């Protein structure tokens, strides 16, 4: 039976500053500071990684659409298929589209782009960035471009630009690429420069007249839902074999897999800070054991059991470590609050999609930090406690 009052009294005694052995106290203090700093840095770093991932996810979710239906055979995505899906899933929103690659030219600047033919009203229901950018013109040959492309082409709203298509048109006895002047009816800003530079929206009618696309048959179908991961299997079961359905996370799988791997690697690397701090716990406890050998031997001769000696030094390590975790947690939340509240670190918005540093520490990440740190502290306290309990009182007192 362990005498808890006796154990706690000795722990309080050993935590006090010892003038004869100041290095023991300093080593314990360094261990405490190392664990506090490690937990704080881990919390802030994981919060930044998670916040950045969520920010990119939000941007990509808008520009890539939650779900996309693609044809496996010609004319597979038809108006009949869309009507059938609307009957089965009335809560979903649909936007059919055409797509082709074009070369954009204006004021001597040339840029390759991806042209989408869409229904402006349906697209506005599933893409708030497009909705904010669209103009009021009713011209068939009008386009909505990204702000990066508008800047490079020197094509503000109301300006006309020339689009060159891969299709050929006959000119006398020769052919040349099909071209058409379009008026810029709106400029969108998705926050991601690559998308703002490459994507152009125009009307379905422009594809009908220029590229002779069949009305009622499309190159694909964008679907909006609040829970695409949950809905994808249900929608897939209602689709014919002539089409496939993809989620936005599948279209960008490599990107998010790389971010997740980077997040795990960062967690393991920063956990080494706590591992190094735990070595200070081991060294501090071992120095305490060596300097208190006579006291340990005396306690043993007065009736203290091995279990009590082991409990003293094990709990001593836990006190140092748990105090470090508590202070590190408070500092971590304080640092996250400061980064969220004050614009201390600014980033280029055209690269990261936001000018403010995104920080979002999830409870799962926080739990992993606390769990990993606790395991390291527990393991660090075991060996010194075991070494203290193995002290032979007869040998020590004889040498004393």
From TrEMBL:
Q: Which UniProt keywords apply?
A: Cell membrane, Membrane, Transmembrane, Transmembrane helix
Chain coiled-coil ranges: none
InterPro entries, alphabetized: ABC3_permease_C (IPR003838), Lipoprotein-release_system (IPR051447)
Residues spanning the membrane: 21-49, 265-291, 312-339, 366-385
Sequence ranges assigned to domain ABC3 transporter permease C-terminal in this UniProt record: 268-393
Q: Does the keyword Ligase apply?
A: no
**Pfam families reported for this sequence:** FtsX
Localization of this protein: Cell membrane
What is its membrane topology? Multi-pass membrane protein
**Record-stated family:** Belongs to the ABC-4 integral membrane protein family. LolC/E subfamily.
Per its record, how is this protein called by name? ABC transporter permease
Q: Which organism is it from?
A: Sulfurovum zhangzhouensis
């Amino acid at each position: 039976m362990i005498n808890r009052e006796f154990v706690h009294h000795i722990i309080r005694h050993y935590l006090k500053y010892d003038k004869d052995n100041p290095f023991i106290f300093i080593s314990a203090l360094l261990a405490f500071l190392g664990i506090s700093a490690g937990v704080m840095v881990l919390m802030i770093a994981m919060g930044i990684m998670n916040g950045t991932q969520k920010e990119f996810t939000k941007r990509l979710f808008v520009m890539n659409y939650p779900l996309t239906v693609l044809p496996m055979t010609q004319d597979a995505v038809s108006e009949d298929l869309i009507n059938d899906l609307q009957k089965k899933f009335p809560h979903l929103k649909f936007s059919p589209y055409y797509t082709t690659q074009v070369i954009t030219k204006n004021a001597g600047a040339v840029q390759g782009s991806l042209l989408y033919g869409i229904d402006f009203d349906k697209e506005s229901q599933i893409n708030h960035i497009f909705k904010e950018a669209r103009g009021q013109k009713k011209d068939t040959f009008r386009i909505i471009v990204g702000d990066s492309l508008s800047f490079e082409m020197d094509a503000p709203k109301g300006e006309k630009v020339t689009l060159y298509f891969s299709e050929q048109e006959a000119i006398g006895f020769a052919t040349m690429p099909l071209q058409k002047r379009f008026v810029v009816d709106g400029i969108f800003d998705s926050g991601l420069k690559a998308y703002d530079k490459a994507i152009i929206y125009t009307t379905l009618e422009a594809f009908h007249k220029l590229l002779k696309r069949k009305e009622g048959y499309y190159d694909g179908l964008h679907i909006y839902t609040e829970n695409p991961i949950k809905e994808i299997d249900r929608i897939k079961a209602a689709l014919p074999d002539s089409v496939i359905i993809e989620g936005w996370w599948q279209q960008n799988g490599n990107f998010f897999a790389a971010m997740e791997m980077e997040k795990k690697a960062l967690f393991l690397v920063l956990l080494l800070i706590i591992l190094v701090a735990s070595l200070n716990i081991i060294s501090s406890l071992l120095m305490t054991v060596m300097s208190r050998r006579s006291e340990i031997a005396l306690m043993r001769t007065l009736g203290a059991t091995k279990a009590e000696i082991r409990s003293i030094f094990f709990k001593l390590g836990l006190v140092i470590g748990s105090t470090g975790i508590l202070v590190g947690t408070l500092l971590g939340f304080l640092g996250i609050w400061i980064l969220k509240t004050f614009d201390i670190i600014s980033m280029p918005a055209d690269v990261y999609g936001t000018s403010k540093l995104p920080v979002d520490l999830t409870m799962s990440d926080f739990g992993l930090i606390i769990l990993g740190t606790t395991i390291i502290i527990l393991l660090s306290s075991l060996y010194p406690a075991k070494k203290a309990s193995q002290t032979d009182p007869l040998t020590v007192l004889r040498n004393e």
